[in-house]
């Protein structure tokens, strides 16, 4: 991401952080690519993906901000979190409603 | 004589005003609807190139290219941040991340020459039909740190 979860330096990076927090995910690793140009270029080569932010879950590259938003809207993110052993906070909210 | 001169001046002023209005309106247009291919290449080279390549690669039924650079910490008139809405049969049976990869690959040259951020909405015609067909703005800039 650009910046840190507490101080994102990019609207797309911020959106990803907010989505994760919305699902109750507070414990996630992040790398501020603005602090290291080698990492910033290197990650793009590694993933063969030209933009930041880049999201990895369980070691698997999921995509960028657009994909996170899509997965959040269609419920896929809840499933991906489940695969990583994380229970989305949205499930609890839904249960409390019932 | 004075009357003739003033009437010529009035005509020149009118035509100059019209030309400026056309140029300004054209440059500010955020969608890719150029009236003249020549002008488009000069005024919006990145957008023109993106439109041509995406149209050729995907034969889309819908292709919208929106320059969102004005929302970011970059000079006025930049072509660095875009949103692309693309609807094509080519995305049938293709996972979302792979759709994005296909679009990214087509625009590889652009990414290497100034294209900095790309928001992509990639749907099949059926998905587009079922959707609201409305695409919101991308998240606001958080200042960045230069490009």
Widest sheet of chain A: strand order?
1-2
Distance between the termini of chain B: 58 Å
Radius of gyration of chain B: 20 Å
Indicate the overall shape of chain A. Answer: elongated
| SS element count, helices of chain A | 5
Name of the top-level CATH class of the largest domain in chain B: Alpha Beta
* Pattern of helices and strands of chain B: HHHEEHHEH
- In terms of per-residue confidence, which ranges of chain A show pLDDT below 50 for 5 or more consecutive residues? none
The pair of chains with the biggest contact is: A-B, 23 and 23 residues
- Determine the N-to-C terminus distance of chain A: 37 Å
Structural classification of chain A: mainly alpha
Q: Roughly what percent helix of chain B?
A: 40-55%
Gyration radius of chain A, in Å: 14 Å
| Number of separate helices of chain B | 6
Overall average residue pLDDT of chain B: 79
Short description:
The complex is a heterodimer of chains A (98) and B (147). With 98 residues, chain A is mainly alpha-helical. Chain A contains 5 helices and 2 strands, in the order ααββααα.
Describe what you observe in this structure:
By secondary structure, chain A is mainly α. Chain A is about 50% helix and about 5% strand. In chain A, a hairpin with a 2-residue loop joins strand 1 (about 55) and strand 2 (about 60-65). The longest helix of chain A is centred in the N-terminal third of the chain and has 12 residues, at about 10-20. The mean pLDDT of chain A is about 95. Chain B is of the alpha+beta class and about 150 residues long. Chain B has six helices and three strands. Chain B has helices at about 1-30, 35-45, 45-60, 95-105, 110, 125-130; strands at about 60-65, 80-85, 115-125. The longest helix of chain B is centred in the N-terminal third of the chain and has 27 residues, at about 1-30. The termini of chain B are far apart. At the A-B interface, helix 1, strand 2 and helix 3 of A face helix 4 and strand 3 of B.
């Amino acid at each position: 991401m650009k910046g840190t979860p507490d101080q994102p330096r990019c609207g797309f990076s911020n959106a990803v952080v907010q989505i994760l927090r919305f699902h109750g995910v507070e414990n996630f690793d992040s790398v501020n690519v603005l602090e290291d140009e080698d990492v910033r270029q290197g990650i793009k080569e590694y993933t063969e993906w030209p933009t930041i932010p880049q999201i990895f879950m369980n070691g698997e590259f999921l995509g960028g901000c657009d994909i996170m938003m899509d997965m959040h809207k269609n419920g896929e993110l809840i499933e991906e979190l489940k695969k990583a052993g994380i229970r989305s906070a949205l499930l609890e909210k839904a249960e409390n409603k019932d | 004589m004075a009357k003739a001169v003033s009437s010529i001046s009035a005509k020149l002023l009118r035509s100059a005003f019209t030309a400026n209005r056309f140029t300004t309106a054209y440059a500010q247009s955020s969608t890719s609807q150029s009236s003249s291919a020549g002008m488009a290449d000069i005024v919006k080279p990145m957008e023109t190139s993106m439109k041509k390549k995406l149209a050729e690669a995907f034969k889309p039924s819908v292709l919208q290219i929106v320059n969102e650079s004005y929302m970011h910490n970059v000079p006025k008139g930049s072509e660095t941040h875009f949103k692309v809405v693309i609807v094509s049969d080519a995305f049938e049976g293709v996972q979302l991340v792979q759709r994005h990869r296909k679009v990214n690959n087509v625009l590889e040259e652009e990414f290497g020459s100034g294209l900095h951020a790309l928001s992509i909405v990639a749907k099949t015609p059926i998905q587009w039909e079922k959707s609201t067909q409305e695409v919101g703005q991308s998240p606001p800039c958080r200042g960045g740190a230069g490009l």
